Structure formats: structure tokens, C-alpha cells
């Protein structure tokens, strides 16, 4: 008989977080062992102050802890301090990141109020300037960051990679006996671009704890490779993201597969899910996906979890689906106010199950759960609270009655207690 060798209990747990330098961005800590930060980006014209304030506010309410905005021309730069001021008046002290390309050095110099209002500058080494101007214009942005004490994200992008660096590495690779593939060389060029740019920024005088690196690619395996390489060769805080991830389920699956892998291996300090919205779609969807990725992997808690069965031939009624959707939507909608009113409510687990097969068991595992009657079952729905059967609901208002029970449970468990109580 062959002996069975069992793995250690923690063999399949996430790897310890990679030790990275902590960077403070407008009061939010990225790296240094801090929780992984969720961020997003607007798609409004930044010069349109009303539209940009509205979208930043929506992203912030959805849970984006940092929001990036495009600063591409004088009108956009001039709008930034006004956007910041308007948000503060709304009670939203959300760090704003300026996304600069081509003329960022000039915009920061010409608009000091913009330079001051932003919490971080994002520089793409491939788009900061060309030929002999590249290093000079990069240096000017770094010097502005030093002057205003702002951190910088050096964000390399696959689609705008430094062509001089790539050409040199390709030539060197062609000269060796067993050359690497073009894809491998391109990955190396991305990593070197980030590391060399960070080295130059430090030489200019930007402290290491004011630098974040990112290496955006559009394929899952490339993301895994370049971030693994960066993690091996640097202790800079890392911003994760799959660029041009795509629309709908494709973008969600690709981003989750890529970032889930590197997060499981202890790599990554902040994430952005770059989803293409549906026409007139909700930009906050990318925030929700980023939160759900971190939550299902056990790294953070953002909103209560609603467990619901997928349905089968025993559940021809759509009641459990509708109830699960309603409760999930209500929980997410209420979280902006509940975070203060009900401390810890993000750890709540609710189960909405559709028949007797797994319903009672799943409901017992949740904080509060309902097992709705399946096809042919008695029209009764047992309710389980804290692992014990508490009651059975009957009649035409089962769904509404359960919603009221969830609200009551949240108030009793998470409501703030007065001194008298």
C-alpha cells in the first residue's frame, strides 16, 4: 500500500506578501504590507468639471480608494484644482492621480495649482518624450514631483514601449547563439524600462518611497511574467493591471485570471481592473470587479457576501434568483453609509438557496440564510440565524419578510451601542 504524503496545512494558502517599500498617496498607503488598494480611472474629459466631479464621486462611493484622471492639455490642467475643491466640498477627500503623456512636464510647470492638487503623477516612459528630449522631460516631471512632494507611478505600457530600448535588446538578442523569442525580449524590455526609469528618478533625487511601478500588458501570461520578473528584481510598490482587458465577461475573466495568480504569489500592492464599459455603461463596474477579486481571494472585505445556488431542475421558480439579486444590490447600494453606521458589516454572510438539497446546509453556514422551496416542495422557507433554525416563513410575502429579517439582523449585530446599553 502506497503511503500518502499530505501537504502542510498552509501549502495552498497565498504566499506571504512580497516586501515592498510603502508609498503614501494622499493619505492612502500603497505597499509596505498595507492592504491591497483598489483604484480606477475616469473616462470623462477632465476639462468638463461637472462630468468629472460626478464620475469621480461615483467611483469613490463605489469604493475606489484612488482615482486617476487624464491631464492632456491646458484646459484639463486648469480644471484639476477646481475638481479637487469641489470634491472636498462634497466631503470626498479622494486622492487624484494625474495621467500625463507627451507634454506632462510643460503642463505641471505652467499650472502649479494642478501640480499641488494632484496626489500622484503617472509617467509613461515610452510617451514622456522622444530621442534627446526623453530623459530631459522625464527629469522635469520628476523634479516637479520632488518640489511638490508627490509620489510618481512609472507606468510602462506594452503599446507604447520605449522603441530605442526594445531595438537595442532585440539586436543584442539576435547576436547570441540561442536567441530568445521576440515575446521574451519584449517582456524584458518592459521590465528594464520600468527599472531603469526608477533608477533615473532616484538619481535625480526622488526618494524610493515616492515611486510605484507598473508594467501594463494585455495578455494574461505576459502579465504574470513581467510582474514576476519585477518582483524578483525590485522592492518597489507594484500597481497591477491588465491593460485593454476588454469588455464584459472577457475583461473580467482575463483580469481576474492574471491578477489572481500574481496576488496569490504575494505580488501586487494596488489594482485596477481596466474594463471597457458597455455603451453608456456604468464606469463603477471596474471598481466592483476589483473589490470582488480581492474579497473572494480573502485579501480584503468590502461588502457582505451573498451565497446563492446556481439553480437546476429542482428550482424552476425564479424567486430565489430575484431575492438574491435584490439583497445583493441593496447591500452594495447601502455600503457607503453602512461602513460608518454598522462597523464590520462588510463581513456579513447571507445565503439565499433554492431547494432542500443544499439549502439548509448552506444557510446554516451563513450568518443568516433562507432555504426557499424548490419545485414540488412544501411552500415553506426555513430561516437560519447564526447556524440555528430560527423560524419558517410561509405565504406570498416570503421574499419581503426575509429582507426585513436581514435588515433587523444587521441592526442588532452591527449597530453602534450606546453607553446606556
From TrEMBL:
Assigned keywords, A-Z: 4Fe-4S, Iron, Iron-sulfur, Isoprene biosynthesis, Metal-binding, Oxidoreductase
Catalyzed reaction equations: (2E)-4-hydroxy-3-methylbut-2-enyl diphosphate + oxidized [flavodoxin] + H2O + 2 H(+) = 2-C-methyl-D-erythritol 2,4-cyclic diphosphate + reduced [flavodoxin]
Gene Ontology biological process terms, A to Z: isopentenyl diphosphate biosynthetic process, methylerythritol 4-phosphate pathway; terpenoid biosynthetic process
Record-level Gene Ontology MF annotations: 4 iron, 4 sulfur cluster binding; 4-hydroxy-3-methylbut-2-en-1-yl diphosphate synthase activity (ferredoxin); 4-hydroxy-3-methylbut-2-enyl-diphosphate synthase activity (flavodoxin); iron ion binding
Note describing how the cofactor binds: Binds 1 [4Fe-4S] cluster.
Pathway membership, UniProt: Isoprenoid biosynthesis; isopentenyl diphosphate biosynthesis via DXP pathway; isopentenyl diphosphate from 1-deoxy-D-xylulose 5-phosphate: step 5/6
Required co-factors: [4Fe-4S] cluster
Keyword Glycoprotein: no
IspG C-terminal domain residues: 306-406
Binding site for [4Fe-4S] cluster: 309, 312, 355, 362
Domain of life the protein comes from: Bacteria
Mitochondrion as UniProt keyword: no
EC number: 1.17.7.3
Domain IspG TIM-barrel: 22-290
SUPFAM superfamilies hit by this protein: Dihydropteroate synthetase-like, Nitrite and sulphite reductase 4Fe-4S domain-like
Pfam families listed in its UniProt record: GcpE, GcpE_C
Function text: Converts 2C-methyl-D-erythritol 2,4-cyclodiphosphate (ME-2,4cPP) into 1-hydroxy-2-methyl-2-(E)-butenyl 4-diphosphate.
Family: Belongs to the IspG family.
NCBIfam families found in the cross-reference section: ispG_gcpE (TIGR00612), PRK00366.1 (NF001540)
Protein name as annotated: 4-hydroxy-3-methylbut-2-en-1-yl diphosphate synthase (flavodoxin)
Organism: Peteryoungia ipomoeae
